[in-house]
């Protein structure tokens, strides 16, 4: 049973990593707490890289089929994704660092450094602005070889993958005994 659980965990992580590497994650994932940069498999085993490649290939097939892209368009899409991936990962990394810093500061209660919190909020807003600029630029590049309908279909696939990644992250956290991050406050108890 232990071997099966380890294999299942390995497969889940490989799928997660492959999806993160393939899909340009941006505004939705950062807001939802799903990070990038986890897909770096430079030091990974050959089996892991092979599995990631297989999953990435399958996702590309789905994208090509559902969006209706030609082989040439698919090659151009890969190029656009590669061009923006580093910038996107950097923004997600910066935002994660700022949010952690804010969390640490807020946990200090009344002793929180107000000036530091204000600076971090300003940086957070700047990152969100940079993300919007990145999406605009990316959409401009995609419009060079994709129709508006294809871009909308591609965005829908990206969103579904983001949601799936978020779900996998929550399940992984819950499996590790950590509470899953809440997107909404808990419901208020009803008075009898």
What's the structural blueprint in terms of helices and strands?
Elements: H1 2-22, H2 27-32, H3 46-67, H4 71-106, H5 114-142, H6 148-175
Helix pairs in contact: 1-3, 4-5
What can you see in these coordinates?
By secondary structure, the chain is mostly helical. The chain has one domain (2-175). It is 74% helix and 0% strand. It contains 6 helices and no strands. The protein has helices at residues 2-22, 27-32, 46-67, 71-106, 114-142, 148-175. Helix 1 (2-22) crosses helix 3 (46-67) and helix 4 runs antiparallel to helix 5 (114-142). The radius of gyration is 19 Å and the shape is globular. Residues 20-40 have low confidence and may be disordered.
Structural class category: mainly alpha
Beta-strand residue fraction: under 5%
How many domains comprise the coordinates? 1
Shape: globular
Which residues form runs of ≥5 with pLDDT under 50?
Answer: 20-40
User: What is the tally of beta strands?
Assistant: 0
What is the number of helices?
6
Write the H/E string, N to C. Answer: HHHHHH
Mean pLDDT figure:
78
Task: Assign a percent range to the helix content.
Answer: over 70%
What separation lies between the terminal Cα atoms? 47 Å
Computed Rg: 19 Å
Query: What does the largest sheet look like?
Result: none
């Amino acid at each position: 049973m232990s071997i099966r659980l380890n294999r299942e965990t390995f497969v889940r992580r490989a799928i997660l990593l492959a999806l993160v590497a393939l899909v340009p994650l941006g505004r939705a994932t950062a807001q939802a707490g799903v990070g990038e940069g986890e897909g770096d498999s430079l030091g990974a085993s050959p089996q892991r890289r092979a599995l990631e490649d297989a999953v990435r290939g399958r996702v590309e097939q789905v994208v090509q089929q559902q969006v209706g892209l030609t082989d040439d368009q698919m090659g151009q899409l890969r190029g656009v994704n590669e061009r923006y991936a580093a910038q996107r990962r950097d923004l997600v990394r910066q935002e994660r660092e700022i949010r952690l810093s804010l969390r640490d500061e807020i946990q200090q209660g009344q002793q929180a450094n107000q000036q530091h919190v204000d600076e971090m909020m300003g940086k957070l807003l700047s990152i969100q602005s940079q993300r919007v600029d990145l999406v605009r630029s990316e959409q401009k590049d995609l419009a060079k070889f994709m129709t508006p309908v294809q871009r909308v279909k591609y965005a829908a696939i990206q969103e579904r993958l983001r949601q799936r990644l978020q779900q996998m992250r929550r399940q992984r956290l819950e499996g590790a005994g950590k509470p899953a991050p809440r997107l909404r406050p808990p419901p208020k108890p009803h008075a009898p």
